[in-house]
Amino acid sequence: MPTTLTAFADVTTSDSALRRFLHGLPGVDAVGLEARAASLGTRSIKTTAKAYAIDLAISMIDLTTLEGADTPGKVRALSAKAVHPDPTDRTTPMTAAVCVYPDMVATAKAALNGADVKIASVATAFPAGRAALPVKLADTRDAVAAGADEIDMVIDRGAFLAGRYLETYELIKAIKEVCVREDGSAARLKVIFETGELSTYDNIRRASWIGMLAGADFIKTSTGKVGVNATPANTLLMLEAVRDFRAQTGIQIGVKPAGGIRTTKDAIKFLVLVNETAGEDWLSNHWFRFGASSLLNDLLMQRQKLSTGRYSGPDYVTVD
Predict the structure, then answer these.
(1) What's 197's DSSP letter?
(2) pTM, to two decimals
(3) For the chain, is the Cβ count within 10 Å smaller at the N or the C terminus?
């Protein structure tokens, strides 16, 4: 299938055209969506498949520290854990990325020292996004210049909820443009919707389409900084969106649920959602990520349980 957005060229020519398109999308059956997400979450995963799922989930984690008290030492320790999540077992996969604030990107880059772990950086006045456009652009440029491989941006939820859809679209496009480096390479762009603040499933669907039309490489549920973050239902809805978008354009977009995914059981439920909704093409860390930190510890303990038959003591994993 050709990769093109030609069919949607007229959709983003004006705010009214984009509004007509977004409000013309099929309404979301909330009861049906939640029932399907719950049903898929009951799938039984046996031992061999569970071992595969645990390693796959580890390889999909964006190991994250986004606190005001972050120090270079903490970022270096997190980077070391990303490369060798279990120092006692070198068969353990690396995580997909470490995710830090822009001022910690250079520290992470030095600590990773060429390891096959991406550096993701939040930007655009994360987590609230309450800043002027020049500030958001500068924030992103700084992270890219420091060596970020990926940018996790936040949309202006106030603009979106006020119905200023074209403004939301143009913000994403502008950030996408500054992700391109002078040599022509580009940081991949993850667009965070903060689904817990969007109020309705219809809004999540509309935000997903705005992000995809504007050039997002990933659409992401949340910052992890509000009460409601990633849920099976909102992630299922976003997986349906990327599946439908590829069917219409040939362009594949990744999905990243973030916040609130803490256990191996949770992670496996999300992997089932991916497989049953978008399909096997999304079952790699190039197209699906977990925004998490505590999740990794549980995955490591469950991994050791499968290999040794017993659970580790509380000192088996580091406390991040």
Answers:
(1) G
(2) 0.95
(3) N
